[in-house]
Amino acid sequence: MQTQKQKRIELLDILRGFAILGTLGTNIWLFATYSDLSTFLDLSNWNASAEGIVTALQSIFVNGKMLGLLTILFGVGLEMRYRKAKRTGLPWRRFILWTMLLLLLDGLLHYVFVFEYDVLMSYAVTGMIVAMLIGLSERKLTVIMIVCLSLHVLLMLPLSLGLGWIMQDAGFRRELLALGQETQTLYANGSYIEQILYRLNNFFSLRVEGVVIGLMNIGLYIAGIKLLRGEAFQNTDKGCRTRGKLLKFVLPIALVLNIIPLLASGYLDLALRYIFAPLLSVGYIGLLGWIADKDALRGMTNRFADIGKAALSCYVLQNILASVFFYGWGFGLGEYYSVWLTLGMFALIAVLIATAAYLFVRRWQAGPLELLWRKLSYAPFRNSRSS
Predict the structure, then answer these.
(1) Alpha carbon distance 268, 87 (integer Å)
(2) 309: exposed, middle or buried (C-beta count within 10 Å: 0-12, 13-18, 19+)?
């Protein structure tokens, strides 16, 4: 019998770790600017300064890409739970729905007590939907994936163009900045309890992104399922060929598409995050697969793998650390915002996360939240599992 370590697909751990650190590379700008969304919505003057160029590079390579990659990987995780349930005799629909309810609870707690832009609740709801579809034929899954992603593009493209048009109006831009001033004041000067109450009182308005990307999530979940079934993550000849195609064809096309919005005077800023980014997410699978084969970079990929094995714990921990460092009730570094300080804090938190993950994995082979998740996932089904 294979050991637990042998059963793991190494590339999936590497990709999870890369995505978790990349998520920090997106979210840290929100912490550092006290949730100033213009960091992501306005790239019109990106070439006017060194700071603007750094922000543009973040938008090209990071912003939205980790959202897409994590969504794909959650789809992979759903498929792996489905396989395990079928293999061990668990009632797979109830098993998957139960694990998604646990994820929903985890996301809700994370949203209330840590960070308002949590993605876990959105993934939980998507998982519940896709759990009802996962047993369909490959052809039907492909059709549903294409329809969902196509409808998403048809929705997001006019929204992006419309926002770009509205943002040309200086008066609207001033109103938008003024609207966010209250939130920025809260994170600069408000207490931790006041921030919790803010998230509770504005629950639905702060969950808008999760609704808007619902179709994209379903499509990318199914893409993750199909990639796993097509051996894209496995160390097989077929998997290597698939990753080679992603590296040679998808990655360069995706990079070009993610550069174009910088030349579009703000009209494609939303499209950058919600249309072009997921394509680069897929390209990153080919890139990380290629890097994983290079022994010279084994130290880096090992650290990614450690974080990937404790992905949920690291995701929550990095947001807690960023809150402590930047918010007014902590060290209040947001008061001294600069691109360079933000990059420095990203590097510091990344080192702390990698160290924590290393210790977690050496001690428990996973993070503390993963251990709790595993225990709670199987608790209601102990008598249903095959011996």
Answers:
(1) 46
(2) buried
Angle at 191 between CA 189 and CA 192, to 5 degrees: 130
C-alpha to C-alpha distance for 130 and 115, rounded to whole angstroms: 26
- Distance, in Å, from the CA atom of 218 to the CA atom of 153, rounded to the nearest integer, reads 13
| Phi, psi for residue 85 in degrees, rounded to 5 | -65, -40
Taking CA atoms, 351 is separated from 205, 242, 271, 355, in Å, by: 34, 32, 32, 6
- For residues 280, 281, 282, 287, the Cα torsion angle rounded to the nearest 10 degrees is 80
CB 53 within 8 A of CB 351: no
According to DSSP, residue 64 is labeled T
Cβ-in-10-Å burial (0-12, 13-18, 19+) of 264 comes to: middle
Quote the CA–CA distance of 346 and 234 in Å, as a whole number. 31
| Residue (of 216, 227, 234, 218) closest to 250 by Cα position | 227
47's enclosing H/E stretch is none
List per-block mean pLDDT (blocks of 10 residues) for the chain, which spans 387 residues. Answer: 55 95 92 74 66 84 91 95 88 90 94 92 95 93 97 94 80 70 87 94 89 94 95 91 94 94 84 93 95 84 95 95 95 90 95 96 92 89 61
Domain map (residue ranges) of the chain: 4-380
